[in-house]
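FORM 7B: Structural annotation worksheet

SECTION A. Query
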Amino acid sequence: MNAVIEQITGRYVHLDIEGRDHRVYFEEAGAGIPLLCLHTAGSDSRQYRGVLNDPAVTAHFRVITFDLPWHGRSSPPAGWENESYALTTDLYMTTIRAFIRALGLEKPVLMGCSIGGRAVLHMAIRHGHELRAAIGLQAHAGYDPRMHPLIKDIAYVDRPDVNAQEAAAATVSGLIAPMSPSADKWETLWQYMQGGPGVFSGDLYYYMVEGDLRNGLLADLDTKICPLYLLTGDRDYSATVERTQEVMRFVPGAEMTVMPDLGHFPMSENAPLFLTYLRPVLDRIRAA
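SECTION B. Predicted structure
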């Protein structure tokens, strides 16, 4: 059997984030318009391997995805042992913009899922003029505890009497569409089982508390400056179709696509199906 070598390049870049050096891992493939992808809470950029390996996308887009500091193959900053990780809107925006500047990306398309989908909305509101377009996957404005009964307290996954890695995977496993391929489901969950202590709950602080957009800010998102495309799987009981529709009501000009038979991690749980929805959006952005 001949070896299969994927055309993905992985490297590290050092970013100055809030006056501290961060060693950040990123991967890329393809050439053309920059497409910067943001992973979900508690996971890392491996979620986008299906997009990175799709020749229909990489023929026209330079697909780039990075592990947030503290996540995956990126390191926490020096002195991390004396602090607790908590993601905030300002920290997230600063990190994304530092990465864009470091790689010299000109007007990238920004795509993110879950907390990445929330970050896409924040970036489009605050810095939409720096983006070519924004694509939100499973994106909504704010968290409702009724959306996910397993997460009633963001500290749950850090209790000393709980196996944090297995608890993180168990917490999100039900968000995957039941018809997604088993191997891809378990690869998605394996990445959750590898998170560092306190990282998942630190991300959920942004997602559930600090990064709430149900405060009128969505009205500041101008789709004439930054076109917004929302893609939502209909098998996600957390970030539901109805929650994405709420965003649509506050953002005139946004476009929404419902993706049947996909859950909370469309790009990793069933990449071939997800790409059938993503490619037409990218074609529209490229044509514009």
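SECTION C. Observations
The longest helix spans residues 271-287. The first strand starts at residue 9 and ends at 17.

SECTION D. Sign-off
Analyst initials: ____
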